[in-house]
Specification:
The chain is α+β, with helices and mostly antiparallel strands and 135 residues long. It has a single domain, classed as PH-domain like, CATH 2.30.29. The protein is built from two helices and seven strands. The strands form two sheets. Strands 1-2-3-4 form a four-stranded antiparallel beta sheet, with helices on one face. A three-stranded antiparallel beta sheet has the order 5-6-7.
Amino acid sequence: MVKGNRLRNKLIKWTTEQGFLLSAVESWRGKSSIGLDPKNNIIALLNEDKGKAKFDLIDLEEIRVCRAIKVYNGGADEESIEGPLRKIMIELHYLDETRQHTIEVYDMKKQPKLSNEWSLAQQWTERINRSILIG
């Protein structure tokens, strides 16, 4: 939980410096954090890898739809569920259909044990889709 708080605080500080105010912020795996600024209709992302922080802002005005995706050994379709769950992702599909952004929430190779990643992906997908509709 300490890593999660550190990441949340780091993302809040960075977005505040950029002129944004996050109303919802969440972290997972001790390496990633996501936040929403509903007034400016953006999401902010922070990913840390080997001590290096990568920040990103995504304008939800450019997003058509958001989906929570589970990937099994057989693929991403519910019909092709074979073997263990490999990944959980949040996919952002842009209005420009040639663009897509994927937020990795869970990867079996990086963290073999699941906790609440699917719930987190679903909650953020709903939150982002509501913001897209309102914005």
